[in-house]
């Protein structure tokens, strides 16, 4: 689906704005990651390990522990794609089961979280295709229903970042979260998404420019610079 003109900001952001925007993204996303993964997922993984009945090699037990450790980030990524917490939890459960069934395919030494993200993302879009639903909507109608962050007063600014980000096209939001929130390299994010590295760079650049403008970061920096000049 073509991107709207409103989302095609191509102006280069200053390092200060990029750093500030990145910090806000990581902080707002951390609110989700801070939440403990539901015990049902932890119990599921431990049952899978126990089902090996003592014949599992040490590396398979390590795989299970690594899977438990990755649950918060996995659930946060699921929440960023899904339109409800319940659907996100279903995605996580399917991802856990598929990851366990294909654990021999994971190459030790590579990015475990990125591998899990790939499984989860493929599951999400497979369900979309199966039900023949539109993934992206330019007006952000579906994205706007993303799960809300906690509503404490001190997190109002972060809530604003999250709700504003929800208006981005799904492809741009996804790329920005993988790179800006989860810290994946452009190459790793491209592997998760299944596209060229240059495509990820373009999506992240457009998303950063639009988000910075929507949050008024450019105007804030210009105002600060103007005030400094007059001082």
Characteristics:
231 residues, mainly alpha, 10 helices, 67% helix, disordered N terminus
Plain-language structure description:
- The protein is mostly helical.
- 67% of the residues lie in helices and 0% in strands.
- The chain is built from 10 helices and no strands.
- Helix 2 (39-50) packs antiparallel against helix 3.
- The longest helix is centred in the first third of the chain and has 24 residues, at 58-81.
Q: Radius of gyration, Cα only, in angstroms?
A: 19 Å
Treating each run of at least 4 consecutive H or I residues as one helix, how many helices?
A: 10
Using the alpha-carbon principal axes, give the shape: elongated
The proportion of residues forming helix, as a percent range, comes to: 55-70%
Main sheet overview:
none
Class from helix and strand fractions: mainly alpha
End-to-end span in angstroms? Answer: 48 Å
Mean pLDDT: 75
Taking pLDDT < 50 over at least 5 consecutive residues as the criterion, the unreliable ranges are: 1-11, 149-156, 220-226
Give the tally of β-strands: 0
The helix/strand series, from N terminus to C terminus, equals: HHHHHHHHHH
Q: Report the β-strand fraction as a percent range.
A: under 5%
């Amino acid at each position: 689906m073509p991107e709207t003109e409103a989302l095609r900001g191509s102006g280069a952001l200053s390092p200060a704005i990029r750093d500030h925007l990145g910090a806000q993204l990581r902080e707002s996303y951390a609110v989700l990651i801070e939440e403990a993964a539901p015990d049902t997922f932890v119990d599921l993984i431990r049952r899978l390990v126990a089902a090996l009945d003592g014949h599992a090699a040490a590396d398979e037990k390590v795989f299970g522990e690594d899977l438990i450790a990755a649950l918060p980030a996995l659930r946060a990524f699921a929440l960023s794609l899904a339109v409800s917490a319940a659907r996100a939890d279903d995605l996580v459960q399917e991802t856990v089961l598929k990851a366990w069934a294909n654990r021999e395919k994971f190459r030790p030494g590579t990015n475990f979280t990125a591998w899990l993200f790939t499984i989860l993302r493929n599951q999400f879009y497979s369900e979309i295709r199966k039900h023949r639903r539109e993934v992206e909507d330019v007006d952000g109608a579906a994205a706007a229903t993303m799960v809300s962050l906690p509503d404490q007063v001190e997190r109002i600014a972060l809530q604003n970042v999250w709700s504003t980000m929800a208006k981005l096209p799904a492809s741009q939001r996804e790329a920005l979260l993988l790179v800006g929130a989860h810290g994946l390299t452009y190459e790793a994010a491209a592997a998760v998404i299944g596209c060229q590295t240059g495509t990820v760079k373009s999506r992240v650049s457009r998303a950063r420019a639009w988000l910075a403008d929507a949050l008024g970061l450019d105007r804030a920096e210009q105002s600060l610079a103007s005030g400094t000049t007059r001082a």
